[in-house]
């Protein structure tokens, strides 16, 4: 079935010849098999077992069972003709206890996964931390404890030393914004803490972990090792041209973006960040030499993008009936209102604004012209339905196809205007455990029938397959 429009075909054939096409997952969301090969508990195991934390009361103990089904999933990747697969290593599988030795069974498992990908001519892009912190480290304070950053460096060294040149790109952290703010300020992610001061300490220690992680990888593998970090940079629009709304947008960007970009890519924090948060923290956890450790050479910057956000300066409640000010706002943003999204929304309630992706890619390329950019996540959740056709099951998801095509057009627009964009990873390869939403939302380009663990092709997967084929055939 041909799903591409003539415009899609033209778009596919106009991407650069050395572009990388991939898809992505995260260990806790897809692996399941939590009791296999001696894995320790993670903060998400603990968080999910607290009544009321997860929308459907579920956890990641089964997920997509990719820990044992990875060969079949790699066959699907090969059918789609992906160039690369972005996956994460589960820290609680590698170090199963505090001060313990590396778990060779888990290391051997990941070697097999990476070797299978390589045999299929699919480049592995490995994320070292995708939110599944070992619970034994959280018991000592988690990311509020500086020692966690040091232990991440030790973990990164072990993984890099063990997996070596099997990995194409080493990514230190995925979306530290979520780890710090959703986990420690808003409490909507593990470990479920609501304390702005702890969130800011987590910000700095995640930055430090990133730097120590890059150092560890390069120490083990040499300067030729390709390193990166993935950030969910906030594309924030001011609700109006009023000075106070523009200032609100700027403050949101500082707290959401500059706390990572400055230290990681420039070796400094914007001093205004300290002013924004002066009532919360004195940032006394920053030590001499930290910024030099954080600011490490990178080969690429991963950008996760889903939607934009509109904000304005807070006004008295009776003057803003249409506002959606958070009950527990992002740290430093208590004087900011987040407006409800408008236009057709995805099943997550997120807006669809492809221009935001073009904008953030261009901004990052202008600021960091020597750095390759990669869209490491981009996708949408919809209420998928399985239908029977000619004895086979299928999912027709035109809204997801449209979202994907429009955002690839946004990527191309950015390239045309000078963005140094080198790859795109669709989120996600599979429907999976969507964190605090459990199994209630589906982002996959493949449908997962959880009772049977069958993978079912969605139109999006076939569209992506045909798009890549057109790109390769030009």
From TrEMBL:
Domain of life: Bacteria
Catalytic activity: Hydrolysis of terminal, non-reducing beta-D-glucosyl residues with release of beta-D-glucose
GO molecular function: beta-glucosidase activity
InterPro entries linked to this entry: GH, Glyco_hydro_1, Glyco_hydro_1_beta-glucosidase
Annotated EC: 3.2.1.21
Residue intervals passing through the bilayer: none
Magnesium among keywords: no
Top enzyme category: hydrolase
Keywords assigned: Carbohydrate metabolism, Cellulose degradation, Glycosidase, Hydrolase, Polysaccharide degradation
SUPFAM superfamilies: (Trans)glycosidases
Family in the record: Belongs to the glycosyl hydrolase 1 family.
Name of this protein: Beta-glucosidase
Source species of the chain: Alloscardovia venturai
């Amino acid at each position: 079935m041909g799903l591409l429009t003539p415009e899609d075909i033209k778009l596919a054939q106009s991407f650069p010849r050395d572009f990388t096409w991939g898809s992505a997952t995260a260990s806790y969301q897809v692996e399941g098999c939590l009791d296999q090969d001696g894995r320790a508990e993670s903060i998400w195991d603990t968080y999910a077992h607290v009544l009321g934390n997860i929308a459907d009361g579920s956890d990641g103990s089964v997920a997509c069972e990719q820990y044992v089904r990875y060969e079949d999933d790699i066959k699907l990747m090969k059918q789609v003709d992906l160039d690369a697969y972005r996956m994460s290593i589960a820290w609680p599988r590698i170090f199963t206890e505090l001060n313990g030795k590396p778990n060779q069974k888990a290391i051997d498992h990941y070697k097999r996964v990476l070797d299978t990908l390589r045999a299929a001519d699919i480049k592995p892009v490995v994320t070292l931390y995708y939110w599944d912190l070992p619970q034994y480290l959280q018991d000592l304070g988690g990311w509020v404890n500086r020692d966690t950053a040091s232990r991440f460096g030790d973990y990164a060294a072990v993984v890099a030393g063990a997996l070596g040149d099997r990995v194409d790109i080493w990514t230190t952290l995925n979306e530290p914004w979520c780890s710090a703010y959703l986990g420690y300020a808003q409490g909507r992610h593990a470990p479920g803490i609501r304390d702005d001061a702890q969130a800011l300490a987590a910000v700095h220690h995640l930055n430090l972990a990133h730097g120590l992680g890059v150092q560890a990888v390069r120490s083990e593998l040499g300067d030729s090792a390709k390193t990166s970090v993935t950030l969910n940079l906030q594309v924030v629009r001011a609700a109006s041209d009023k000075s106070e709304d523009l200032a609100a947008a700027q403050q949101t960007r500082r707290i959401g973006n500059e706390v990572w970009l400055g230290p990681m890519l420039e070796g400094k924090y914007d001093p205004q960040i300290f002013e924004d948060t002066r009532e919360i923290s004195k940032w006394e956890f920053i030590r001499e030499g930290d910024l030099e450790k954080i600011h490490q050479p990178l080969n690429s910057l991963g950008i996760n993008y889903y939607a934009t956000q509109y904000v304005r300066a807070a006004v008295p409640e009776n003057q803003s009936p249409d506002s959606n000010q958070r009950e527990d706002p992002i740290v430093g943003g208590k004087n900011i209102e987040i407006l409800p999204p408008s236009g057709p929304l995805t099943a997550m309630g997120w807006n669809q604004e492809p221009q935001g992706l073009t904008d953030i890619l261009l901004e990052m390329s202008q600021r960091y012209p020597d750095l390759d950019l990669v869209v490491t996540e981009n996708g949408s959740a919809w209420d998928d339905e399985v239908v029977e056709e000619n004895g086979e099951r299928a999912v027709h998801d035109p809204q997801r196809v449209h979202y994907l095509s429009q955002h690839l057009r946004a990527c191309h627009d950015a390239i045309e205007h000078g963005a140094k964009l080198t790859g795109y990873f669709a989120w996600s390869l599979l429907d999976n455990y969507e964190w605090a939403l459990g199994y209630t939302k589906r982002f996959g380009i493949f449908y997962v029938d959880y009772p049977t663990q069958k993978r079912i092709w969605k139109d999006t997967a076939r569209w992506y397959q045909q798009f890549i084929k057109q790109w390769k055939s030009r």
